[in-house]
Amino acid sequence: MEAAAAQFNWTMEPSGGGGGEEYGVREEFIWSLKAMLAVVFVVAIAGNLALVWAICRQKNFRTSNYAFLISLNLALINFLVGLLVVGPLLLQAHYDDFMLGEVGCQLYAFLFNIFLVGTPLFMLLNAVERFVAVVFPLK
After folding, report:
1. Is the pLDDT of residue 6 over 70?
2. Among 11, 126, 134, 138, which residue has the fewest nearby CB atoms (within 10 Å)?
């Protein structure tokens, strides 16, 4: 399980110790990556919550039932990605250790892969449904 949690080596140190200089990575670069990850986390959570709130609150966003469901589903999926994937990754980057234990590591890997495949699959199914609705409309 340690190998799965160690897939993101934020310190850029080899397992035998040493420094990041062995890889030619400066500490400022590592901190800039951590800062960008924090920005992605905040924007993902705030932006998707604002979108869900706007969709549910404003009636003019619900003119098309199809667009309403697609927008709401994608916003909720992206919110969960920000919370359940980027959040633990940000904690791991900050503390240089995976803090959720073995079960948390397995759950994190499972959720990461579900969201990685699930979001494009959801968009593909919606595109196929729209294609069928346009090419073969109900008579």
Report:
1. no
2. 138
